[in-house]
């Protein structure tokens, strides 16, 4: 009885739901708007795609490895605490990285955030001014930033210029600047010669010292340089790069460290909770905690858009408004920290997760239809990552502010969470394979719609169809997992599909999406994604028709059938015994009567 009192299933489910809600809410405060912050820093689409793709690949590799290590050394709670602390602190370091090109839009309460070209951009030490009145002067002064010890003051607000003066060439200005550069360089060389000539004591001391000591000093200096060159080679290479590439590597290192710290959080918490519920014979209630993640993400992204839009009247600088996402993420993660401390966890050393994942991969490989489902999730994951990374860029270019973005993303998440309530009706008309085709085709139509946006609220109607696209796809994947999984391997098979879609597909889609936007633009990215999805939806029914159909073995029905057959045989045996006994009794009674007569 004392052992049963320690197991509180309702408390465990409540704490797990709260942890999923808070963690998803914290990620939604920051991650959907992170690519916008990279754009504000001045990074190119290709750089943004590489950073987000690296983030997905780190999650793909480090999530199972970190969870296995935490289970092996029985440090799950320590890992959860450290992961939450790093998730709260590491994103704030991105605010310390300086900008190269700033998309600052100083707006008022009556205006909206419209993506315009930056007014000033400082790249590779060259001063570029995009003001129309001083554009010709900036072209003639662009080479001056490469010369040392030269400062050029560029005035943005230039006085009024006559039309006749604009027609004259700017050769005279360039000649005067070259003369200034030459005079400044001559002054620097003359000052250095004076300093060298004004130190006779040093020359006499060096000449009096023997040459042997000088050779030893030079040898020591060379050794120190050779030893330190390996340590500071990377930092030296960063100094040689232009500011944009320096920014890229700094952000890449920061995001990689952040993702390495936070990647094992979800797997570790899920494993501990599932083993706790399995120990209490309540593992069937594990799936009830997954809905809170979507609800928390919807609340987080919607609240972020609403709060930043309200602060637009108070904070005029867009950089300061972008920092609100980071600070709110830290606050929500801090609220999740005590929940993770009191979350009930259980360690089942007999359950080997590595073997479970290998068996799940073998089950997926053995079924042709399961392989087709995995390929579909890979395409869908790549498409979703490309859309998630650059949809807000497209909305920003068409006049959307953070309120429009937050509400559209929240509507998509809520509609995705609503599909399980419609699944019973949909399953009467469509099989899971056909639902997979319909979901991928609907996602392709959404991408076509995103390429033709025309206003701030234009993306909102398409987000409703996320119920039919993303929600339907994940429902079909879950049914496929139940079809091929053996008892106890359902979670491992589902993790194989999520790793294919969210991590592997997301990484490939981020890399490809960034380079496509860099080369062809945002519009052709969405059209290319839609074309690939529609072509796959055309090929998928033919492949499903050619794939051999494997009949599903329903173990629960087999057990019920065995029980019913056993009960029927027992009843028949009892009836046969009773009939024989009654016949024997009747025969004995008749024989006794005859003997008495």
From TrEMBL:
PANTHER family assigned to the protein according to its UniProt record, in alphabetical order: MAJOR FACILITATOR SUPERFAMILY DOMAIN-CONTAINING PROTEIN 6-LIKE
Pfam annotation, one family: MFS_1_like
Keyword Membrane set for record: yes
Biased composition, class Low complexity, residue ranges: 197-213
Originating organism: Xyrichtys novacula (Pearly razorfish)
Topology of this chain in the membrane: Multi-pass membrane protein
Family of this protein: Belongs to the major facilitator superfamily. MFSD6 family.
Cellular component annotations (GO), alphabetically ordered: membrane
Protein name: Major facilitator superfamily domain-containing protein 6-like
Lineage: Eukaryota, Metazoa, Chordata, Craniata, Vertebrata
Record domain Major facilitator superfamily associated: where: 21-527
């Amino acid at each position: 009885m004392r052992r049963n009192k320690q197991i509180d299933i309702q408390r465990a489910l409540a704490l797990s739901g709260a942890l999923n809600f808070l963690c998803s809410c914290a990620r939604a405060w920051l991650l959907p708007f992170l690519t916008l912050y990279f754009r504000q820093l001045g990074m190119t689409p290709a750089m943004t795609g590489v950073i987000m793709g690296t983030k997905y690949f780190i999650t793909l590799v480090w999530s199972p490895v970190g969870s296995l290590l935490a289970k092996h050394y029985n440090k799950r709670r320590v890992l959860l605490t450290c992961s939450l602390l790093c998730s709260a602190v590491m994103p704030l370091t991105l605010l310390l990285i300086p900008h190269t090109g700033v998309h600052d839009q100083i707006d008022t309460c009556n205006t909206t955030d419209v993506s315009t070209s930056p007014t000033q951009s400082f790249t590779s030490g060259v001063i570029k001014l995009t003001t129309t009145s001083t554009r010709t002067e900036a072209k003639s002064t662009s080479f001056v930033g490469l010369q040392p010890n030269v400062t050029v003051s560029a005035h943005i607000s230039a006085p009024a210029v006559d039309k006749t003066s604009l027609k004259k060439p700017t050769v005279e200005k360039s000649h005067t600047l070259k003369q200034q550069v030459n005079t400044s360089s001559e002054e620097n060389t003359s000052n250095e010669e004076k300093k060298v000539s004004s130190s006779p004591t040093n020359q006499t001391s060096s000449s009096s010292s023997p040459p042997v000591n000088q050779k030893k000093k030079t040898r020591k200096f060379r050794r120190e340089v050779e030893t330190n060159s390996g340590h500071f080679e990377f930092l030296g290479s960063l100094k040689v790069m232009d500011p944009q590439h320096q920014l890229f590597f700094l952000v890449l290192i920061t995001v990689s460290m952040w993702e390495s710290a936070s990647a094992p959080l979800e797997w570790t918490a899920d494993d501990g909770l599932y083993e706790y519920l399995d120990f209490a014979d309540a593992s069937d209630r594990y799936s009830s905690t997954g809905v809170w993640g979507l609800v928390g993400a919807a609340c987080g992204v919607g609240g972020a858009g609403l709060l930043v839009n309200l602060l637009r009247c108070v904070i005029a600088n867009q950089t300061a408004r972008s920092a609100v996402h980071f600070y709110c993420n830290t606050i929500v993660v801090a609220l999740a920290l005590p929940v993770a401390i009191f979350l009930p966890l259980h360690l089942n050393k007999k359950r080997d997760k590595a073997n479970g994942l290998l068996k799940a991969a073998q089950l997926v490989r053995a079924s042709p239809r399961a392989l087709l489902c995995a390929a579909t999730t890979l395409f869908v994951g790549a498409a979703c990552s490309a859309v998630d990374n650059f949809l807000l860029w497209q909305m920003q270019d068409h006049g959307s502010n953070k309120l429009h973005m937050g509400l559209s993303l929240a509507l998509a998440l809520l509609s995705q969470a609503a599909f399980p309530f419609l699944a019973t009706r949909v399953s009467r008309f469509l099989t899971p394979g056909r639902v997979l085709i319909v979901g991928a085709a609907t996602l392709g139509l959404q991408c076509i719609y995103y390429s033709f946006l025309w206003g701030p609220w234009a993306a909102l109607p398409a987000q409703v169809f996320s119920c039919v696209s993303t929600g339907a796809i994940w429902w079909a994947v879950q049914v496929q997992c139940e079809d091929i999984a053996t008892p106890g391997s359902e979670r491992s098979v589902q993790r194989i599909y999520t790793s294919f879609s969210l991590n592997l597909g997301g990484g490939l889609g981020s890399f490809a999406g960034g380079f496509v936007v860099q080369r062809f633009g945002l519009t052709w990215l969405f059209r290319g994604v839609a074309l690939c999805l529609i072509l796959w939806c055309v090929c998928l029914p033919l492949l499903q028709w050619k794939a051999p159909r494997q009949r599903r073995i329903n173990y629960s029905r087999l057990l019920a059938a065995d029980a019913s057959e056993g009960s029927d045989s027992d009843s028949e045996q009892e009836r046969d015994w009773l009939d024989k006994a009654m016949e024997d009794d009747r025969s004995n009674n008749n024989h006794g009567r005859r003997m008495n007569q």
